[in-house]
Amino acid sequence: MNTDRKEIFKSRFNEHYTRLCSLAYEYVSDADDSEDIVQELFITIWDKGKDDSKIIHFNNCIIPKVVKMSTDSTNVHS
Questions:
Q1: Could you give the CA distance from residue 69 to residue 64 in angstroms, rounded to a whole number?
Q2: Cα–Cα distance between 61 and 55 in angstroms, integer?
Q3: Distance (Å, rounded) from C-alpha 78 to C-alpha 72?
Q4: What is the model's pLDDT at position 73?
Q5: Which one, of 34, 57, 31, lies nearest residue 45 by Cα?
Q6: Average pLDDT, the chain
Q7: Which residues contact 65 (CB under 8 A, 6 or more apart)?
Q8: Which helix (H) or strand (E) holds 32?
């Protein structure tokens, strides 16, 4: 496994995790669910190899994905 890829992923996870959990929480109103959503997103990013995309592209696509996953989650639970 590429060490650079792991470091990029780790850095982005650490940089964005708290903010993305807060964003998800605005939709789901549950701390555990919001963490699950963000963790699931990062797993998907890693599995699809999207973690090494340019930082601007990464930032532009990750927020809408958290919103979509959060709203999808609230629709399932309502």
A1: 9
A2: 10
A3: 10
A4: 85
A5: 57
A6: 87
A7: 41
A8: helix 31-47
Task: Give residue for tokens 């927020």.
Answer: 63
What per-residue confidence (pLDDT) applies to 69?
94
Query: Which of these, 32, 25, 29, lies nearest to 67 by C-alpha position?
Result: 25
Tell me the residue type at 68: K
pLDDT tens track for 14-42: 999 999 999 999 999 999 999 999 999 99
Residue with tokens 């669910």: 33
CA angle 42, 49, 3 (to 5 degrees): 90
The whole model's pTM is what?
0.84
